[in-house]
Amino acid sequence: MSTESRPPADFQQTVENALSLPIDLQVQLVERLNDSINEAEPTAEYEAKVMALVRHRAEEMEQGTAKEVSHEEVMNFLNEPV
Predict the structure, then answer these.
(1) In contact, 3 and 43? CB cutoff 8 Å
(2) Contact predicate 82/15, CB 8 Å
């Protein structure tokens, strides 16, 4: 059974509102969201998923099959609309 909750009906509007903020306010918002996430205790299920992903990525790196991504590509991805 999944413990993930469904986003509220106005989630997309909230995202659009956040993306319309000036960049300095977007940064403040991200920092506050990150702080609130870091304060929460991770569940055992979440930790298991993270560790599985870390192991998978480590295997890809060792095998040379991981696709490296430049900083610029990451920043472009983060700036794409949701």
Answers:
(1) yes
(2) yes
